[in-house]
Amino acid sequence: MSLDSADPNIVVYTAIFADYDVLIDPVVAESSVDYVCFTDDETLTSDVWEIRNVTPMTDSALSNRRIKILAHEYLEEYDISVYIDGNIQILERVEPLVEDYLSTADFALYKHPKRTSVFEEAKACIEKNKAEEGPVREQLKYYRDAGFPDDRDLSENRILFRHHQEPEIKELMWSWWREVSERASRDQLSLMFVLWKHDLEHNQIPHSVRDSPQFAIHPHRPDGKLGLIWPYWMSVRTDPDPGLLKKAVFHFGRALSVLKREGFLALLSKSASLLVRTLATRVKEIGDQLGILGPDQIYSDEYYAKRRQDPFRSESHEIADALVEQFQPGSVIDFGCAIGTYLERFEELGVAIHGVEGNSAAFRHAVVPNDRLEQHDLRQPYEPDDYYDLVLSVEVAEHIPERYARTFVNTLAKSGDVVVLTAAPPGQGGTHHVNEKPPEYWTRLFNDHGMEYDRQTTDELKEEIVVDSLYHVPKNIMVFKKTDR
């Protein structure tokens, strides 16, 4: 089914039973999308979610899965649904994802972050006591006997995108529900089998929910006494408002009063510790997610003035020399170019240059004419005005919050066939390093855009570039190339 049909109506929904999760409001709530929460909690209220009370089955987990799977039974007034687990928070707009993921298929799923097959998932369920071994082994035997090849990439079923009113999707969902209700209730064990049985192709999103900048995964509500204060903790953990400290003290004050009233004095110190840890985490996350530390707030005029001097300037020229020798580019674009010391040398060598920088202070200290530079926040999408022989981004990636990393990589990948990137690894440390990740992380993101890591060229540059003050550049350098070059 195409999204070109007139006014497709979209619902995002979740199902929470037996206080398993705390309902989380989206950071971005779209007027074109409805939000529905099914629950057995008659006291639950929300300014964003429409609360629909339902009588649960005896098994609360199965109550969730029935609503999760049978969207067409519970949401007849909608054409398109996006199911999310109760511990998922929406950080960005969902409608663009629907338009993208359901444009060529009626069902879209995220890739599992760790496992690739149903049999791997079954083994993990048994080892982690998430399902009884006997029924799981019986289920696997049934699938083998049926001829199931188990050759589809395993999905992560925290989020489901569906045209749930399509007849083949309804039929698929009924089959899936029968598997979940009559065999092991772990829905990831049965979905790939059901898709195979119905010979239905779906859109496999090439990354996991955890790697998606549009969503955040939070802990489930714990059992026992700590669960009493969970709503207060989640109020702080998920609140995007920068006025965090006042709210945090308020919510945790209420939490501590509950514990004291209930006689759980032993949990008071643990709650205080939780407050401190949460504040430290959320202050950083809020700055990262909402851009409190924008490009103009990371580096000062003094920093850029220093970059005009040696050894930084001369070593930048040495690095540019090595890149020209390696790639022989006719044109280069430098994302996060700062004052343009790399571009300065490229232009001296006859290369056409363009620089993109977010911090306005850099322009006041630029060593290339400002008409060669463009101001743009690299957390936001960017459309290049040309296609360049070489795309460069040095000491920038670690400053891009993880929720914007995919946008940043998309910008680089669409700008040319060859990307030279440096990215600080975990533990390096530095000013506003909010996203230190290993090379494998960036490789996965570039793979999603048809680019592969070029180990040979990377190793050659690591040997060719010998600098002192900018030693992190050769240490962290990576080269990615389009696979269809």
Automatic annotation (TrEMBL):
<dbReference type="GO" id="GO:0008168">
    <property type="term" value="F:methyltransferase activity"/>
</dbReference>
<keyword id="KW-0808">Transferase</keyword>
<dbReference type="Pfam" id="PF13489">
    <property type="entry name" value="Methyltransf_23"/>
</dbReference>
<dbReference type="GO" id="GO:0032259">
    <property type="term" value="P:methylation"/>
</dbReference>
<protein>
    <submittedName>
        <fullName>Methyltransferase domain-containing protein</fullName>
    </submittedName>
</protein>
<feature type="domain" description="TOD1/MUCI70 glycosyltransferase-like">
    <location>
        <begin position="9"/>
        <end position="199"/>
    </location>
</feature>
<dbReference type="InterPro" id="IPR029063">
    <property type="entry name" value="SAM-dependent_MTases_sf"/>
</dbReference>
<keyword id="KW-0489">Methyltransferase</keyword>
<dbReference type="InterPro" id="IPR048354">
    <property type="entry name" value="TOD1_MUCI70_glycTrfase_dom"/>
</dbReference>
<dbReference type="Pfam" id="PF04765">
    <property type="entry name" value="TOD1_MUCI70"/>
</dbReference>
<dbReference type="InterPro" id="IPR006852">
    <property type="entry name" value="TOD1_MUCI70"/>
</dbReference>
